[in-house]
# Entry
Amino acid sequence: MDKPRQTRGVRSAGHDEIVEILGSEILSGSRAPGSRMPTADELQERFGASRVLMREVTKTLVAKGMVTAKSRVGTHVLASEYWNWFDPDVLSWRVGLGLDNELFVHLGQLRRAVEPAAAAAAADHRTDDDVAAMRRALTGMASATDRRAFSAGDLQFHIAVAAASGNPLFRSFTSVVETALGAYLSVSTPMDEGVMAISVKQHTRIADAIEARDATEASLRMQEVIDVGLERVVEPRR
# Structure
């Protein structure tokens, strides 16, 4: 198990920095569920911050579902099922700790449950502007010369589909997982030009179905893209 990161050389660290350090330690497992978090005095000594600031840090971690704080009992780390995984910070910290099969599978399962439904809704509610946004993203993918540019276009495509759904919750979902999804797509992006071209065609079929207002086809094609991407990133690591 990793040891908590020591920062004694860092004086007067800010709120966001301290929250990220402690949150990452919890996510990494170096602070196990049920374990006691340092007291305000211990955190003050470590980070050189005031007791007031350390109390605010604790409140932030409580709000993210990562710890529970009770008077006379102290602050303790909660199990992962209580963590607010839709908190952008939590997802960002998790991605920062490294990409692995477990994260890929969990994100893939979530995408499979949400994005095909978003694509079907997009087929029912899309506007011409929505379709144009998808086509621009496809052009970006097709003209990309490296993985980063290709995955950026890929991400914009999925954002455009969510926006076209007419359901703000689908769009909010994409916004929430954008950091993790961007990292996921950057790894699932094929380096082979031929495979990249196939990926563009697969995404184009989604856009075509949405433009044709074929909800069933749009859902199936989105599911296909998600499954192919998941196989690409998980299988090589098994």
In short: The beta strands are 67-70, 74-77. The chain has two domains: 15-82, 99-237. The longest strand covers residues 67-70.
